[in-house]
Design a protein that fits this description.
alpha+beta, five-stranded antiparallel β-sheet, 10 helices
């Protein structure tokens, strides 16, 4: 969100909280992308804010409740108010329990165990959701439309389009078992708390092989996950790199240093294996 939208979104979140009897005189921005993540004080609530119609907040609320019922490691909704989506001034607001950073930091083994528990809970709390291929289609549509990705060179457009299509086919031909997934269980979507690792942000939930989720986590984490198919994981890592590359070239993308990120991802796809995880790529960019 741009500065004006951030200001309006903060006002919407604090107004909703105050109307529910939660004192919210201050708000700290924890993350800003297509959604805004806020810490509201002094009520100490975690608020997620998005434009109405550009979110799946109701789905997230219902899924979080279902997963909590079966013991899934998810961040719980704020218990002092009704668990639902609140709207104000064109924004959808959901309120969650806030957890401060815990020490020590999350170990790869604990991360992997938490993800395994999440997948188990998702099998039990299965809900209708799109397949991971729907997300691939979204990336393909960006690449195919010069109006949506005007700065993508023709040669890069052809290359990325071909890679997305071939990887989609390759993963489909493997015939792996599919289930409900988080969709993006990267380190930014897992909290290290005194109650153990807890996952947040279920907007990207989809059906697919567990290796699609594992492609989003650090390599040390996927190595700890039991029974994963390394060949399928390599294909999924490539696919994630290609999808994220497409999103970074979309007109209006607000990811920090996004265009540079997109250039690096295209280069990595051309260079070939070993396929790095996104956290490794981001660390390299930050160090450059």
């Amino acid at each position: 969100m741009d500065t004006t939208d951030v200001t309006r979104a903060i006002t919407a979140a604090t107004s909703v909280a105050a109307s529910l009897g939660l004192p919210a005189r201050h708000a700290s921005v924890l993350h800003n992308s297509n959604k805004l993540a806020l810490r509201l004080m002094p009520c100490d609530v975690f608020a997620r804010v998005a434009f109405v119609g550009e979110e799946v907040a109701q789905f997230e609320v219902e899924l979080a409740q279902r997963l909590a019922e079966v013991g899934g490691p998810v961040c719980p909704l704020e218990p002092r108010v009704e668990p639902r989506v609140y709207t104000h001034d064109g924004f959808a607001v959901t309120l969650w329990t806030y957890y401060g950073p815990a020490t020590p930091h999350l170990s790869p083994a604990d991360y992997a165990k938490a993800l395994e528990r999440l997948h188990d809970g998702m099998r039990k709390a299965d809900v209708p959701s799109p397949r991971f291929t729907d997300r691939v289609t979204e990336a393909q549509e960006i690449v195919a439309d010069p109006a949506r990705s005007p700065e993508l060179a023709d040669a890069d457009r052809a290359f990325l389009s071909g890679r997305l299509a071939s990887l989609r086919r390759a993963i489909g031909h493997r015939g792996a078992v599919e289930q409900l997934l988080h969709g993006e269980p990267h380190p930014g979507n897992v909290l290290s708390t005194e109650n153990g690792p807890l996952f947040i942000d279920f907007e990207t939930c989809c059906r697919g092989p567990v290796e699609f989720d594992l492609a989003h986590v650090p390599e040390a984490v996927s190595e700890q996950y039991p029974g994963m198919d390394q060949g399928l994981l390599d294909d999924c890592r490539q696919l994630v790199i290609a999808m994220v590359a497409a999103w970074r070239w979309e007109r209006g993308d607000q990811f920090p240093n996004g265009r540079r990120f997109g250039e690096v991802l295209l280069r990595l796809l051309r260079e070939g294996p070993p396929w790095p995880t996104l956290d490794t790529v981001i660390e390299r960019l930050d160090a450059a």
